[in-house]
Amino acid sequence: MANLTWTDAAARAALRGIFDAAVAAADPRVVLARHLPDRPKSGRVVVVGAGKAAAVMAAALEDAWPDMALSGVVVTRYEHAVPTRHIEVLQASHPRPDANSAASATKILAAVHGLTKDDLVIALISGGGSALMALPAPGLELADKIAVNRVLLECGATIGEMNVIRKHLSGIKGGRLAAAAAPARLVTLAISDVPGDSPAVIASGPTVPDASLFADARAIVARYRMKLPPAAMARLAQDHDETPKPGSLPPADYRLIATPAMALDAAAAAARAMGIEPMILGDALEGESRDMGIIMAGMATFIEKNGFPAKPPAVMLSGGETTVTLDPAKPTTQGGRNTEFLLALAVQLKGQRGVWALAGDTDGIDGNQDAAGALVGPDTLARAEKAGLNPRALLDAHDSYQLFNGIGDLIRTGPTLTNVNDIRAILIVPREPK
């Protein structure tokens, strides 16, 4: 299955090196310090934040300003905490909120209460913040938020659509944290995990105005035929209590310190250093994971056969967030969007020689599994069948995790403490000589 220069081990090592370079480029300990604002001449510095990277961002801020009197609180996912000296680190559940999510949101709002125009609020925002900082809006209970979140994760909606609904059911997102911090100077340092890097979408935009309306949220509910709790539907009908709109909040500063595009650039640089020509297809690809796998298998086949538009060895790089639409009537299975993408790719390639692939979430967790993603090679289907696994049946059941776990091809990084969404890399190597 290897030609004169490419072995299976070499292809896998190259892909892992490319993925690791993308993750390293988004490490808050490397990138945060250069984006800090000017230090305040007087007043307090209060740090708040939410997301999978919030704790390590707080630690990086403390390291950058070791002599500054800092206070505040951030919330991150369980097992994502790191030691800090002054900023309190709380932990909550992701992707489904829990009681700690609501308690953390309440504590974050309290931290910015009563500040003056001389004070500085630094908000550390990263992916996962919506679930980790979940404060029910008036009329809702935490159980309602949890039920809504479950529906959102299973309905097939995009992250932007999901966050429109989340913002209108929240007491802190959609600009409400910014409103609570006024009149203090507000600077947000954010790591983007969403297509397009919109501040209004990252963690449901707690520190920026929200242009969406309750009517937009209701339209999304109808489009995907969501069955939300009665209290949530009643809240979405309250047009009078809109989120803060553009122009209604004091001017604030929003700085993106790491994005999917930055990670892809680092991945491309790593590929070039290995003598592999990179092709960046985009940092904001969306759609069904299975469909994306089929499409990219076709692209890889064309390049492998024709040596165009890139001459192998070449690697197709892409970012963004695909979706897996589950049937709520069927039992929950084990699979994430990256492993589903890879299994669909492998099934479509049918063991084609010269093509390997890796897909993984840069936070180290694909969906709610213990792996970042997986690897695919020309022998993936054969090895799966030898292990008694049916690739097509597992794909149809959205049970891709079981296949890659069964053949030992899952990628387990543990929490990376950053999150710039998914990285997909498909390596095409030169054809074997006839």
How is this structure best described in words?
The protein folds into two domains: 8-25 and 261-428, 3-Layer(aba) Sandwich (glycerate kinase, domain 1), CATH 3.40.1480.10; 29-258, Glycerate kinase, MOFRL-like N-terminal domain (Rossmann fold), CATH 3.40.50.10180. Helix content is 37%, strand content 17%. The chain contains 16 helices and twelve strands. α1 (8-24) runs antiparallel to α11, α7 crosses α9 and α12 packs across α13 (337-349). The mean pLDDT is 94.
Which structural category do the helix and sheet elements fall into?
alpha/beta
Radius of gyration: 22 Å
Q: How many β strands by DSSP?
A: 12
Helix fraction, binned, reads 25-40%
Quick structural summary:
By secondary structure, the protein is an alpha/beta fold. Helix content is 37%, strand content 17%. The two termini are 13 Å apart.
Keywords, separated by commas or semicolons:
alpha/beta; glycerate kinase, domain 1; Rossmann fold; 2 domains; six-stranded parallel beta sheet; six-stranded mixed beta sheet
Please render the helix and strand layout as text.
Elements: H1 8-24, H2 28-31, E1 45-50, H3 54-64, E2 70-77, E3 88-92, H4 99-111, E4 120-125, H5 129-132, H6 142-154, H7 159-168, H8 176-181, E5 185-191, H9 214-223, H10 230-236, E6 253-258, H11 260-273, E7 277-285, H12 289-306, E8 314-320, H13 337-349, E9 355-361, E10 373-376, H14 380-386, H15 391-396, H16 400-406, E11 410-411, E12 422-428
Parallel strand pairs: 1-2, 1-4, 2-3, 4-5, 5-6, 7-8
Antiparallel strand pairs: 8-12, 9-10, 9-12, 10-11
